[in-house]
Amino acid sequence: MEQQKSAAAALSGIFKEESSIPEEYRIEEIHQKQYLLNGALVPWDGAVSKIYSPVCIPGKNGLERKLVGSVPDTTPKQALEALDAAVTAYNNGLGEWPTMSVEGRIKCMQKFVYLMIQQRSIVIKLLMWEIGKTLPDATKEFDRTVDYINDTIDALKDLDRESSRFQEAEGTIAQIRRAPLGVVLSMGPFNYPLNEIFTTLIPALIMGNTILFKLPKHGVLAHYPLLEAFKEAFPKGTVNTLYGKGSEIIAPIMESGKVNVLAFIGSSKVANGLKKLHPKVNRLRAILSLDAKNAAIVTKHANIDVAVNECILGALSFNGQRCTALKLIFVQKEIAQEFTTKLTAAVTALKPGLPWEKDVKITPLPEANKPAYLKECIDDAVAKGAKVINENGGYTEASFVQPAVVYPVNDQMKLYHEEQFGPIIPVVPFESIEEPVNYQVNASHGMQVSIFSEDAEEVAHLIDSFVNLVSRVNINCQAQRGPDVFPFTGRKDSAEGTLSVFDALRSFSIRSLVAAKITESNKTLLNTIVKKHDSNFLSTDYIF
Ligand code: G3H
Predict the structure, then answer these.
(1) What's the Cα-to-Cα distance from 7 to each of 2, 10, 12, 290, rounded to whole Å?
(2) 133 CB near ligand 1 (under 6 Å)
(3) What pLDDT digit, counting tens, does each position of 346-366 carry?
(4) 132: left (phi over 0), alpha (psi -120 to 50) or beta
(5) pTM score of the predicted model
(6) How far apart are CA 257 and CA 270, in angstroms?
(7) Nearest residue CA, atom 8 of ligand 1?
(8) Which of 107, 204, 258, 277 has the most CB atoms in a 10 Å sphere around its CB?
(9) Residue 519 and residue 509: Cα distance in Å, rounded?
């Protein structure tokens, strides 16, 4: 009780009167009354879902999540209309967008990115209010997404240059290009509501596919200022938005069998359920980024300061709400005391507060049920012999949860197995290096691992053990997705397909070729088509 009181005193004041929020960060409620369908912003006067911020304001009933606005709660009827629009725009590959030249598609994308940049400040503000991302991180999410689009354009130019020549083999001449697949359903998570959806939507779109995109529950309003840009930049029906409950609106879309690619970032359980709804699984390509519980392994040969800094970044950036977050830390017993002492001190030094406040690192959580779930995880560990070893760890006030370092964690506890996706750092002491290796062998996921050691022989052994268990081995640094030109994927239940600026262009397309026997008449025929620019596909034009 006394401990709770002192925690309340130390952490009180995180939530403030609205009048004390600096003018530039205050927000007017935004009530979205339209959605993007078939090239128009269609008015909506039906039911809406209210959007509440993780930021609470003290009111007469105590702390209350601030209302940010509302979005259309569209139904399966509108979802199927959106599907029809995307199917019609694709028109079995004969539509304006899938047959447009690569240069034409690039021009549309450049127009989109120009219009998107005009909305930078409002999107960043909405990211802070809707998901509680700090100002530097929200800014980074927007700018990283713009860079991703520009890099995608450059990667497509390179791809097109490579494909803009004929190849000859065994008396046959061919031109091989990458062609679209059809209708892409893109769904993303709340933690990167802009960036993660765009890392599938943008490459899918620029390759000539048509798009349905389902907005995440948190971070949905951040997309509203961009709908006009989609409408202006792309042909009718090329991009269509979906709102409402995923469990109601996505099933009829998948059951129609008209979706060619499912691009989904979320849980493997949901992804598997969605795939099974498709009547012709062989026609469905899936690009998935799923469960992960990336481990850090800190051996007795580690530079402890480096390990602590990177583990803090890995475990607590955006309050641990990253698929790539370090969600379990193994530390060798010989250095466990020193490591945990430094780790808890580093956690205590992190400033809690509201997203726009200077130097704030820990912010309120958007998911309403998350504080209760985190408490359940901590209680379970404590009941089985662990302790919260940092001051005020786990202290909760409304949507805010102070990070908890939980030690010693073992394989009997939820925190050893479940992806907490929040501000808890479970630390597992180990004797033999085989223990963390066995953790990964038995885990249902296999995204990344971070190894902390300065012993070359030990690192080499661990690299060779882990490269076939996960898809990225980080040495003396946190796990992460970037740089975005590097492949991002996972094994087991962590992913299907590979994303990167370049890989995504491949993932959302299929190779198609035009081939002919090398005869004089065929040479003349192909040369005439190319010279007269009669075909968008068969072309040797070089895009600058
Ligand atoms: O939530 C998963 C994100 O793709 C992680 O990206 O490692 O750059 O934070 P990040």
Answers:
(1) 9, 5, 8, 35
(2) no
(3) 999 999 999 999 999 999 999
(4) left
(5) 0.96
(6) 18
(7) 481
(8) 204
(9) 30
